[in-house]
Design brief:
Blueprint: E1 3-7, H1 16-30, H2 39-48, E2 51-56, E3 59-69, E4 74-82, H3 91-106, E5 111-116, H4 119-128, E6 131-133, H5 142-146, H6 154-159, E7 168-172, H7 188-214
Parallel strand pairs: 4-5
Antiparallel strand pairs: 1-2, 2-3, 3-4, 5-7, 6-7
Protein name: GNAT family N-acetyltransferase
InterPro entries: Acyl_CoA_acyltransferase, GNAT_dom
Domain N-acetyltransferase: 11-151
Length: 215
């Protein structure tokens, strides 16, 4: 089976709905929050050349798109997804790596960042040279954070004034001198523990609020 990863064009519009459905179903399966996107939005990214798609014999196998903020000061990779039929092949890492290299050429001066709850994505990002950072180091563009409104955790983000959520912020600064291997090695145990601590803290605060409200 040959899988090709290419920059999207209008000929790929036909996959937009399937991409949206796959992203949503995957998030529901994992029980994680997600910023939903419409097929029209995905098609806009495709036509602008701000997305890459993986195709296996003409069928949709994976996808990821690029968003830029603050006039190109920051760039984010969103919607990284692999179709269920093509998982466990290392395809997510291949797509992410391709999009990463493409972003460095398309937006050479931009800091590349992301927020995620997925340990697999954190691992890929870490291997590319990203480092975990507080949300204060990410874009302040309100339109980026507005994209989180459809996420199930948006109320948590709002309550923390966009400074903290269940997601982990990660950043790659092209101006920093990179080392091989990356200087921020991925430690799954540590990040998994951090995620559990975050969840516990938010749950305790939520229970306290409910208790006070009932009184």
């Amino acid at each position: 089976m040959k899988i090709s990863i290419v920059v999207t064009q209008e000929e790929h519009f036909k996959f937009a709905q399937e991409i949206c459905d796959t992203i949503e179903s995957s998030a529901l399966l994992r029980g994680t929050g997600i910023a939903k996107r419409t097929p029209e939005y995905i098609q806009k990214k495709m036509s602008n050349g701000d997305a890459m798609i993986a195709l296996a014999d003409g069928k949709f196998a994976g996808f990821c798109y690029i968003e830029s903020w603050e006039h190109g000061k920051f760039v984010a990779h969103s919607g990284l997804i692999v179709h269920p039929d093509y998982r466990s092949l290392g395809l997510a890492k291949k797509i992410k790596s391709k999009v990463f290299d493409y972003s460095l050429k398309r937006y050479p001066d931009a800091k590349i960042f992301g927020i995620t709850t997925g340990l697999a994505v954190m691992k890929i990002n870490s291997e590319l040279g990203y480092k975990p950072v507080p949300f204060s180091e990410l874009t302040t563009d309100p339109s980026f954070w507005a994209g989180c409104k459809t996420c199930t955790n948006f109320q948590i983000l709002q309550s923390k004034e966009n400074k903290m959520c269940l997601c982990t912020g990660m950043l790659y600064d092209p101006k920093e001198k990179q080392k091989t291997p990356p200087r921020h090695p991925f430690n799954e145990a540590v990040l998994s523990r951090l995620k559990k601590i975050k969840q516990a803290l938010f749950l305790n605060k939520l229970l306290s609020f409910i208790f006070l409200f009932k009184i």
